[in-house]
Design brief:
Length: 169
């Protein structure tokens, strides 16, 4: 999945802005973008800027003071966001991006690639949030769910922001 997404990003002239690591799906994605002729920017906090962790193939590496600065930089320079399956960091980042979009701090596309139903339980929790009125059902439109890298790139490419009313404004 990461290899296919990387190929599609490169072929569509997207620059990948990622967490700067060389291991796991993050590393596989960045290597794929590079392999297919694309550009990659890695953004890594100083604490993780270590041999064996930080990618050595990225076109540019930005080292930040901490994770907060990393996320702030990545959110600012990115035109859209795609989440592959991941751990606590991935969950924290994607939920923050959804929240920031809900609160109108950004209007960029968010895609969650649900490979092999990886995020099904999270989406079940989202449905409970909607049914128990902790979140409006319209918030489903804050992000796009797919199991296909092709559909993810199509969504990002054709994205048109639609304002969603939220509970605060």
């Amino acid at each position: 999945m990461a290899d296919e997404l990387g190929k599609l990003l490169a072929n569509n002239n997207f620059t990948l802005v990622h967490g700067g690591g060389m291991i796991g799906l993050m590393g596989a994605l960045s290597r794929s973008v590079k392999k297919h002729g694309g550009k990659v920017i890695g953004v890594i906090p100083e604490k993780l800027n270590k041999t064996g962790i930080v990618s050595t193939t990225d076109d540019k590496t930005v080292v930040t003071a901490d994770m907060g600065e990393r996320k702030k930089y990545m959110t600012y320079v990115s035109d859209g966001f795609i989440a592959l399956p991941g751990g606590f960091g991935t969950l924290e980042e994607i939920l923050e991006l959804i929240t920031l979009k809900q609160l109108k701090y950004h209007s960029k596309p968010i895609v969650i690639i649900n490979t092999n139903g990886f995020y099904d339980k999270l989406f079940d929790l989202f449905e409970r949030l909607y049914s128990e009125n902790f979140a409006k059902a319209e918030y489903r439109d804050l992000f796009f769910i797919t199991d296909s890298p092709e559909k993810a790139v199509e969504y990002i490419t054709g994205y048109k922001y639609t304002e969603i009313k939220d509970k605060w404004f």
